[in-house]
């Protein structure tokens, strides 16, 4: 059976120092503990707008919510970066800073639908990779489904190389009534 997932790998030493460039007046910064609800809202909106996740949307969001809560708990600075426009958080990327993790891009770059196609996802990916490099990682991994926007347009940036990936997180086959 063919895998429906890809695991991307980046050599962090090759990520340009300006990979996180975002046009002004947007700001990329570390999230604060108080922004967890706003981050979850961006993630839910982002995944609901990508048809590549439609068949597993509910269980995926349940899993991601737990991982986001973990990234925000008991830490001075959550393992999350946000993209801010004025007072509004319009994008985010939750990270796993553990070098041995299978997936360092927990959510991948998430951008609200009305702000997409303006290189903001690329800037968030670049910022995520730079943050992982700053945390001491030499390689970073991101897992996504084959037909998603991330797999087709985003994750190949910054020399991301993909390989098929097997995960236990698959959709339960739906039976005809």
From TrEMBL:
Lineage: Bacteria, Pseudomonadati, Verrucomicrobiota, Terrimicrobiia, Terrimicrobiales
Gene3D superfamilies linked to this entry: 3.40.630.30
Domain called N-acetyltransferase: residue spans: 26-177
InterPro entries for this protein: Acyl_CoA_acyltransferase, GNAT_dom
Pfam families membership: Acetyltransf_1
Protein species of origin: Terrimicrobium sacchariphilum
Official protein name in the record: N-acetyltransferase domain-containing protein
Molecular function (Gene Ontology), one example: acyltransferase activity, transferring groups other than amino-acyl groups
